Amino acid sequence: MSQDMSQKTAPSNDSRRTFLKFSAAAAAASAFRIVNEPFLAAAAMERKRSQFPPGAVVINANENPLGPCDMARAAVVAQAPQGGRYSYWLTDELIDTFAEQQGLKREYIHVFPGSSEPLHFSVLSFSSPARSYVTGDPGYEAGMEAAKISGARVVKVPLTKTYAHDIPAMLAAAPDAGLFYVCTPNNPTGTLTPHADIEQLVAKKPKDSVVLVDEAYIHFADGAETAMDLVKAGQDIIVLRTFSKIYGMAGLRCGFAIARPDLLAKLEHCGGWSALPITAVAAATASLKHEHLVADRKLINSTVRQKTFDWLSRNGYSYVPSQTNFFMVDTKRPAKEVIDAMAAKNVFIGRIWPAWPTYSRITVGTQPEMNAFMAAFDAVMKNAKSVSFALPAADPALPGDLRSSRHDRIDADGQMLPAVR
Ligand SMILES: Cc1ncc(COP(=O)(O)O)c(C=O)c1O
User: Fold this and answer.
1) Which residue among 207, 221, 311, 396 sits deepest, i.e. has the most Cβ atoms within 10 Å of its Cβ?
2) pLDDT tens per residue across span 15-44
3) What is the pTM of this model?
4) Is domain 70-289 given the CATH code 3.40.640.10 in the classification?
5) Ligand 1 atom index nearest CA of 244
6) Which CATH superfamily is 37-65+293-382 part of?
7) E strand or H helix that includes residue 361
8) Comparison of pLDDT for 8 and 204, the residue scoring more
9) 384 CA from centroid of ligand 1 (Å)
């Protein structure tokens, strides 16, 4: 055997190590997927991508029934004929518009097709087997799914009695933290974490860790303060914004990560630099330029929500007083039973969080949709056998995720998810 051949057939230890490293990376990359609200909502119903029955009331995924505003729709139509071109300058225009409105430097803004990508990329960039991922409980689950890919320990910290993130407890629970996720208003409770608490987290967090503040629902809330001032101050913080909620563009896909350029650069390494759908970008710019959109829609949502809350109170049902376009209602028995009974009445409500097993999340729809919800809920609940459940019941010592070999699926926070292959 020639020297050449032996080198080809018997790789050195170094190249074997390199190969193994790349194979592991490739395996991780092949398992990578973006988990988001429609995925979780469909998984909770085990219905995947099938359509809802005719006339269904769909209030399970925190979507906005109003859809994009008129100006955004016109922008989509105007851009459609240009769909054969990348037209990068439209993204620049969106960045410039947002930068001017928020007093941000344009290099602190990165546009994504929604906020799910930067959420996942943040977890991949800043958490690892050595640096844990810290989140509120109950909280939005997408980051926990991403932490399975980064290999990070997931630290779930129960919310306070006022349903805020318990910042001192989050700090105490994870001296090895790589990423703290603070969703405010929080999904699924719709409640706020005060700005002062986020400041405290930024000031006291372990060195080199990053705070990720998800402001997906901030426009619906009264008195919510953005954390973008901490970005401007150069802190280790990333703020997420999406056009999926108040702007009604979940199906069009557009969102922002707002952070120091060095932090944004880390996210770019995960997701590359991809062109954006120009219809979505043009619709997002038009939405930002709409002077009354946020105020009008906030009022519509809070009016329908308050009527629903008043009805729930009058009828003796308890709920968490949310500031957003969704709320948690106490079903006083395993919430899955109520979700299934509601579905049988063609009203599709949201999910369960294991920390609160007798609660289900309801999205605020239109008034007619909420009228249908109230009628169906009353009928279902009148047949219900109550069980008691006191909040907060979350035990941080309990593992959040269990693996079910029978179904070969991952039960993550009450969701039956297809296993990653
Ligand atoms: C808290 C929170 N963050 C992020 C997202 C992601 O939304 P999108 O990818 O549509 O921007 C959602 C979706 O519902 C959410 O609830």
Assistant:
1) 221
2) 444 444 444 444 444 456 777 777 777 777
3) 0.85
4) yes
5) 10
6) Aspartate Aminotransferase, domain 1 (3.90.1150.10)
7) strand 359-363
8) 204
9) 32
